[in-house]
Fold each of these.
Amino acid sequence: MIDPSPTPNGPDAGQEPPAVTVVRKPRRVPGDRGPAPRLALAWATFFGAGYFPVAPGTAGTAAAVPLWWALSLSPRWIYVAATVAITVTGMAAAERAGRYYGVADSGHIVIDEVAGYLVTMSFLPRTVFAAVAGFFLFRFCDVVKPWPARVFDRAPRWKNGPGVVLDDIFAGAWALLFTWAAVLAKERFFGP
């Protein structure tokens, strides 16, 4: 019996197609870097959310939802001040944690997701719909990295604490626009 499938010709003849590889953020480079900066690690991992074994960035964002829920009860100036404080202290903690892990943007560092989600949820109504839409739209923007988030994520000069956090701040700004659009569309077509 003759095999009816076409036979490949050329240099790739007889080779299997390349397997799909999954790219993961490195979490830690082996080696001793001295004592652990415990306070910086606790804050950079948002009290351990970054150690979640699967999708730690998503776990960090989920851990930020109750913080947003609590902060959304406060006056706007307190919300903004808390977001700025989390962003600035997150940059310092991400810098220290990145040096300790040996990877500037370790998968364990999720304080950037917390700051980015708080930016996403800035001035949005305190509703379950807004929280869920903001969560998914922030995760989407954090993965896609629209400009200028991509600059802070990929440029070698930003492979440090500020770069780690700033890419999520800008992803959060885009997600804020998309979430507002989703909230307004929901109110227009489905009511409050």
Amino acid sequence: MASEEEPDADSTDDDESRSQGIELGDLDEKLESHDYPTTATTLVDEYGDHEISLPGGSQRVEEVLGLYEEDDQEFTDAEEVRQAIHNLVGAEAVGRDHYSDRGGSTPDEGGENEDESF
């Protein structure tokens, strides 16, 4: 009898390739098995057409890591590549624009109920 707290095998695989709303899919496994050190140019050449799923759309690896091609950034392991992808994905990876769960209005909204300090 399986425990209710035991995760479903399918959801575990999804969780491993998804982080902070960014879904790498089979690219995650390919990055793990890739030979390191490597460069952004090499990664773009090999995986450039892979789609990175984001909450607001998707981007190809070429669009993301291609930003490093001029410097030809070197990566020592898959974790560095994943971190670079997280740092470079566009606004599609972000939730609602200007959303804050802290209440009040944003500085751009202004508003008549602004707090005053005396």
Amino acid sequence: MLVVVGCGDTQSNADTTPACAPSCQDANLEGQDLTRAKLGGANLAGANLAGANLDGADLAGADLAGADLHSARLHGSNLTDANLTGATLDGAELERANVTDAELTDAELGSADLRDADFTFADLSGATLDHADLSGADLTGATMSEESLSAALLTGTVMPDGTTHE
């Protein structure tokens, strides 16, 4: 059962989609339970999703440019081909998320939990990853600077060149 919630409503323990979808540009969805939401291709540019629960959500191809996702939960979410340019994901939890081919240019991912996430061919140019946990993540073919990983946890991380960090 899919429950549609308004931008001020909170719903839990169900598949949810905000009432503003597919265009939630600049919407305030702070702290919302959007577990397993179907938001593929949605316009969420500039939206406030701080502290939202997006575990298992489908955000493939979504526009999240400039969105605030700090402290959001995105465990196992699908962010394939999503636009996260300039998005704030500090302290967000993206464990096991699929971020393949996503655009994360200038995104802020400080202290984010990115364990076992798939960033294959993602663009992380200018992204901030200070103190992020990338243990077991796959960065194969990702575009990024080595400096952005200087303070990140990289145990078992597959690096952009395909080598595994010990």
